[in-house]
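Possible regression after last week's pipeline update?

I re-ran a chain I had predicted before the update to compare outputs. Posting the input and the new output here so someone can diff against the archived version. Not blocking, just want to make sure nothing changed silently.
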Amino acid sequence: MKILHIITNLGMGGAEMMLYKLLRQIGATPLDAAVVSLRDNGSVGRLIEGLGVPVRTLGVSSPIRAPQALAELRSIARRFQPDVIQGWMYHSNLAATMVRNVLGSDVRALWNVRQSLESLSTEHVTSRGVILANAALSRGPACVIYNSETAARQHQRYGFKPHREEVIPNGFDCNEFTPSVDARATTRARLGIPDGVPLIGLVGRNNPQKDPHNFIRAVCRVAAQRSDARFVIAGRGMDSDPDLIRAIAEAGLAERFTMLGEWREMPGLYNSLDVFVLSSSHREAFPNVVGEAMACGLPCVVTDVGDSRIVVGDAGRVVPRQNDALLADAITGILALAPDERAAIARLARKRVVDHYSLGAITRRYVSLYEEVLGLPCEQEVA
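New output (post-update):
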């Protein structure tokens, strides 16, 4: 099988990383893959190239560039001759359908929807048009894949009516993301956090939907109760946001905060924490960071967005979004647990990811879907 993946861009993000992990996992199978980024390359694109998978970029920075880029995409697809074209996110879904229509009925188009959709009013006006176009054309692809049950229900309310839909959640490499005493010690030494000091962390790119200010308000309350606690925020753009830095300083917590940018050694960072926090307010479907943290045996406190409640289950705490008081109570509640109680939550967190979200199992679901839409016997094995 030859699979052409079309994605909006290849910077660090949840959809981009899931594509990379999928390509890395199926690399040992007879599947042949290529990737086209509608915009540009980025850190994830370079990771994909490191797998030996060809990556082409179209440089679409404005609608004016779109017609020429579509012609280039059609040319790439004709040369590659894919059996399946898979779009990743709204713009790429439309591109996948347009190219499939040129190549003919033997080629199958699949869509991949990677965010929740609570209201169109929270989307940019251009994005609204693209989402509605997706809804209008949603009967065209052979299947629409969602990465969360919540996203599937929400998109159905806005007119997504595909012939077939599948919920395939994010997958995690439980060998890479695993509890490690050594990684904890090494990362804490780098951060200057002594052993035994409670460390609470937030990880995510600097985006309003991640609501880092909610996290800061919550940990201000935690700090008032736990004078020994320290806090870390990591993610692209977080360490250079003047509003976040000002909010921390005004709260008098600058000496107790560590602000990091994009951090490369994520398993080590998760292992250095005692509590992981997701403070997001909207648009989350299946937050990768929660699965990664849980795979590392980390108790999580999450806001009730997307499928976070389903993912965490009994292995953490779920609170309403934008409620810093309840977020703080949940954090202090976990810190107050006896060591054996916290260890039991940590074991349960990892077990949930191993049982339900292991990368091997999720990859097998993608490969089986490719085979099914092409009418092939489901014989491919994925390690």
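Follow-up from reviewer: compared with the archived run. The chain is about 45% helix and 15% strand. Marking as no regression found.
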